[in-house]
Amino acid sequence: MNDPGQDLELRLVRYFTVVAAHQHFGRAAADLHVAQPALSRQIQRLEKHLGVRLLDRIPQGARLTPAGLSFLPRAQALLQAARQAELAVREHAETERIAIGYVEDLVITAAVRELRRRCPDAEVTTRYLSCRDIGALSERRVDALIARAPLPLAADDVFTTPLYQEPRMLVVPLGHPLADRASVTAEELAGEEAVPCAFETGDWTSYRILGAGVPPLESYEDKLELVASGRAIAVLPVGDRRSSLRPDLVTVPIEGAPPSQVVLVSRKGDPNPMIRNLRLAAKAVLTAPEA
Which among 289, 282, 286 is positioned nearest to 116, based on CA atoms? Predict the structure, then answer.
C-alpha cells in the first residue's frame, strides 16, 4: 500500500525513466551500472509506493502500463525540476565545482589530477558517459566533456578545444584475410556499412559492419564479440587498448585514414571559471598514448 507520509525517492524515479527509455531491464541496468535484480527490486519499491504497476515484462523487454505512460512525463518533469533547483543553489555556492564527462576508452586521470593540483579547494568530479548520454552537456549533467570529434552538437552552442590526435587501427579476428597484413589502406575499407556510436557522427566511426542483417549493438563488449565471430570489423583509435585484452583479435595499422581527434567541449557562455582551468590542465598533460 502507498504510504502518504513517505517521500517519493528521486533515485527510484530516475531508475524508472531509464527503464522506460530502454524498454528493457537488462539494458537499463547496464546504463545505470547496477545489477538487474537490484533494479527490478527498486522499480517494485516505486510501484508499491505509488500503489500502481508501472511496467509490464514482455518477451522483448518491458512495456509501460497506462499508469506508467501517465507517470513518465511527470517523472521526467520532477527530475528536471530537481536538477534546476540543484543548479540554482550551486550558483550561489562559494566552492568552485566542475563535473567532467568522458566517453568510451578515454583516460582523463592526468588532467583531473593536474586540475586538482592547480585548484586544491575546488570540487572536481568525473562522470563516465555511454553513447546514450549525448545530452549530458546540454542538460547540464556535466560542465565539460572530453570525447572524440566530431560530435553531434551544434557549433553555435559549444566551445571546442582540440587536445590531441591518434591514428586509426583495424581490429579483425584471428584467421581473417587482413590479420597478417603489416597495414591496410583506408581505400580497402571504404564502403563498409557503419553503425556509429552517438558520440561519433563523421565518416570514420569507431565500428563498421561487414555484412548486412546485423542489428546495432549498444555494448562495446558485444561489438568485440561480433568482431571475434568474424561478422564485423572494428576501426578504432590506436590508443584504445580494450581489444588487446582478447587473444582472438588482431590489430592492423590503417594508412590514409583521418586521425581520431580528442577534444574538450563546454557550453558557450558558461561562466564557470573551472572550465578554463580544466582547459589549461588538459592541454598541459593530455597527450596521445604511444602506439
Answer: 282
